[in-house]
Amino acid sequence: MSGDGSPGRRTVGAYALVTALSVLASSAVSVVIPQLARDLELDTSAAGWVLASFSVTFPIGTVLFGQLGDRLGPRRAWVWGAVLFVGGGTMAAVSPSFAPIVVGRLVQGVGAGAIPVLSLARLARGGARQRASRVGFLTAVVSIHSGAGPLLGGGLAGAVHWRATLALPLLTVLVAVPIWRDLPDTPQPGSDVDWPGAAFTFAAVAAPLLLLRQLAIGSSVGVWPLVVVSMAAIAGLVARVRRRPSGFLRRDLITDPSLVGAGVAAMCLLAIYLGGMFAVPLLLTDALGWGPFQLGLAVLPAAAVGTVAARLTGRHVRPARWSLVAHAAVLAGLGGLVVITFGGTPLAWVAGLCLLATASMSAQVVHTTSVLRAPGEPQANTAIGTFQLFLFSGGALGPIVVGAVAERTTVPTGVASSSVLLAGGIVLPLVLRRRGRRHHRPRSPLKVDLSMPPDEDLRASPGGQA
């Protein structure tokens, strides 16, 4: 541990490994779905629930463990998260039939939500430049493993078995104890977790995503029940937030223009990037007939470019330039969509995907760092968990939107349609900012004043104690 209470390099490496495992739980599993479907005698659509189940519960897990991190303390919250992440992965890997595999993946997704929240909250010590550098490092880890995941998963499935890919979370035990020792045991006084609010939040996020997935694959099974559940869950969640403002979704956080604006902007850029990761392999398969290994190699440049963009942004961009990076990311995202839609060649498709990776990963660094609170501040973990609820919900939304449009038209048209998401990432934060000014809201502690000197815009924790 360094003099200011920040974790040392080895400990940061432990956080990086567990972050990589949480990414691989999705990216590496995606390529083994056909083998899983064949062995369990399922159609590909049904087997896709193995992937979708993790994606649905992961965003909810970020909010849950944000609250548990504040109420129980990060150390005890990490124990619960690690148990769910490893236990769910083990259940999915050893279960002989389809249903227990899906249940295991649901549990695994909830536990995985602890990883980004507690990692980022722990690395929030020091000045803004230090925070940005650490966030950039973790974002780079996410980028490279999201691109390398299909290659790793395919190689592991070929060398061992597809179940070995589902068992990757077991590697968490290698770093569970060092992370436990590093995390502070500092619970904050407050009420218990709002479990009814958690249930409403889960339904309000999961039901619409599942509805969109069913529409994307052209299935009418369960569509109307999902419509009813979606509407009822959203209405129930709104009523719950009004009745209990300090509940599972804190009213002061989800109405904060800075936090919500940053979350929506980062969400939309991640959505179009993952939509591109879904579309480009389809284009390459249709044009060249490539298989999984070749497709995995084709998306690696984008992952590498995203890694470099995240590291450069975190280490070399001053906080006063974050706003410029956020605007440049939108332009890069738009350029990537145009290149993929109208390029018409494999080289253009890969280049467009690199632009989307640059946009998403650089923006993710500045938006994530801007909402971090110093450890010890009220609701520090809950704030980052709420931000990531927006971020990772968008990650699930991007491929669904592109797939739904591509199913009925063409893949380039599906990519072009995701420009609607990009527009939302531009317009909604502006609307929120203007609304906040109109109501003369006081400056939120989450809002970054970009005019401040680099070491003053984000406060370090008092005394620098762990």
Q: Could you tell me the radius of gyration in angstroms? A: 21 Å
Largest sheet: none
Oligomer designation: single chain
| Arithmetic mean pLDDT | 84
Could you state the order of secondary-structure elements as H and E?
Answer: HHHHHHHHHHHHHHHHHHHH
- The outline comes out as globular
Poorly predicted ranges: 440-466
Q: Between the first and last Cα atoms, what is the distance in angstroms?
A: 9 Å
Structural class: mainly alpha
Helix share, percent: over 70%
Q: State the helix count.
A: 20
Number of β-strand runs: 0
Percent of residues in beta strands: under 5%
Description:
- The chain has 20 helices and no strands.
- It has helices at 9-27, 33-39, 44-47, 49-71, 74-94, 98-112, 114-122, 128-159, 162-166, 176-182, 195-216, 223-243, 251-254, 257-288, 292-316, 322-343, 346-371, 380-408, 411-417, 419-438.
- It is globular.
- The longest helix is centred in the N-terminal third of the chain and has 32 residues, at 128-159.
- Helix 7 crosses helix 18 (380-408) and helix 14 (257-288) packs antiparallel against helix 15 (292-316).
- With 466 residues, it is mostly helical.
Can you tag this structure with a few keywords?
466 residues; mainly alpha; 20 helices; 75% helix; disordered C terminus
Could you give a quick summary of the protein structure above?
This protein is mainly alpha-helical and 466 residues long.
